[in-house]
Amino acid sequence: QVQLVESGGGLVQPGGSLRLSCRISGSIWRYNAVGWYRQAPGKQRELVGTIFPTGPTHYADVLKGRCTISSDIDMNMVYLHINSLQPEDTAVYYCNARESNGSVYWGQGTQVTVSS
């Protein structure tokens, strides 16, 4: 059974930074892509960025220039580092993994709250 577990969220002051982690069961090489999404209250879930084990990392506009997605393939971990956090970045951040057969898996999410 595929499991994705996010961690690292919490309360942070405006201007601060966080590193979110996604632990993936099994090898990252099993997946075509691993993505980070976020969903703010009352809004649709939106893509933050995607990392491809065999290719470049893609960043959507929502956090472009303020985030970095990286991976530790040996540890089956994917990270999302966000800096210069603002209150509008408050959301639940999700990790997802997509297999070549089209199957998509989601983690339970980790809450990020940006507030003074």
What are the defining features of this structure?
116 residues; 4-stranded antiparallel sheet; single chain; globular; 7-stranded mixed sheet; 0% helix; mainly beta
Distance between the termini: 40 Å
Structural class: mainly beta
Percent strand: over 45%
Mean pLDDT: 94
Total number of helices: 0
Share of helix, binned: under 10%
| Contiguous uncertain segments of 5+ residues | none
| Number of E-type strands | 11
The shape is globular
Topology order in helix (H) and strand (E) letters: EEEEEEEEEEE
Please state the CA-atom Rg, rounded to the nearest Å: 13 Å
Largest sheet: 7 strands, mixed
Topology:
Blueprint: E1 4-7, E2 10-12, E3 18-24, E4 33-39, E5 46-51, E6 57-59, E7 67-72, E8 77-82, E9 91-98, E10 104-106, E11 110-114
Parallel strand pairs: 2-11
Antiparallel strand pairs: 1-3, 3-8, 4-5, 4-9, 5-6, 7-8, 9-10, 9-11
Give a brief description:
With 116 residues, the protein is mainly β.
Question: What does the model show?
Answer:
This protein is mainly β. It has strands at residues 4-7, 10-12, 18-24, 33-39, 46-51, 57-59, 67-72, 77-82, 91-98, 104-106, 110-114. The chain is built from no helices and 11 strands. Strands 2, 4, 5, 6, 9, 10 and 11 form a 7-stranded mixed β-sheet that branches. It is globular, with a radius of gyration of 13 Å. The protein starts with a strand and ends with a strand. 27% of the residues are buried.
